[in-house]
Amino acid sequence: MPRGLTAVLMQPGKPLELETLPTPEVEPGGILIKNTAAAICGSDLHYWRNDNNYSGPDIRRVPGHEFTGVVHTLGKGVTTDSLRRPLKEGDRVAFPFFNPCNRCYWCVRGEHHACPHRHRKSQQFTLNEYAYCDGGYAEYYYLPPGHYVFTVPDVLPDDAIPPVNCALCQVLHGLEYSEMKFGDVIVIQGAGGLGIYACAVAAEKGASKVIAIDKQTPRLAMARNCGATDVIDMNEYPTPESRVQRVKDLTDGRGADVVVEVVGVAAATLEGLDMVRFNGTFVDIGNIIPATITLPATKVITQQIKWKGLMHYDPWIMPAALDFLVRTKDKYPLSKVVSHSFPLSDVNKAFTFAEWQGKNTGTAATRVILKP
Q1: pTM of the predicted model, to two decimals?
Q2: Structural contact between residues 267 and 244, judged by C-beta atoms closer than 8 angstroms
């Protein structure tokens, strides 16, 4: 089996290290992927900053989850993708970065996104227990037996694919999960990769207004080009109260039917809940770091707000996301969500460039990818 360059997270808040490691043996029913590009997601920036204030022993784990590649080796018995379309070595593919077990209470009920056994091996184990080149920020990734994998349509450019398996699929599932209706007003907190995709998905699902909120003007311009009808620039509306009032002004005083949080800042949740109309829905996707917020229960109870947390997505979301990109490729510049590219060997330079917190000018990036 081949060996591949692998980025290794030793300590959150410290530079990633590089190692060359062997790939796992391909079992019958498995697929070895040769990674072609991996994106830096907002959740990756959390450990880059050490938002968890971790100070324990070295982790020695392979990070990265938003990525794509081509088939390197098909395991015995694998001849098609998950929709029974022919699959061969060299084909471009997209796949979830987690693997529902299909043999638990949640999977039997069709709740694959909530399967407690779904996590990939590079998330379950450190390199001390599983010493393989197998992850997003690596040259190779192993899809074990029971995986989901989908061929990528030829019309889609390479750089459109890396964010599909996290950013696009996550917000597509989030808006499905919100049960938004045709004509709803949708507020998107954050106009990075997830936020821009969310604008386009909400627009295509029939939202009457799509309101994007961010502090970085270029991202808001991109959001407008990708379905946002209105934007709230935090430089113009610097306080939570002013942003909440702006949403009320844009909705005849009601507030939004659905607010989607994808910025990953806990304070945004408090703000977003005030933007939801009476009996509306708040979908919390970005707050994956255990930051504490305090709010009176009446904020949710008396306003009858449906507060939904969501992580990951069901398998059908992946081919729907790819089809969405094909159908809208001439309508929205979603292939340009990936704005910058670095070689995998420059992973730390890429993270420094992608980081936006603590920078007065933010970052020029919407999505940065690493290419092995």
Answers
A1: 0.94
A2: no
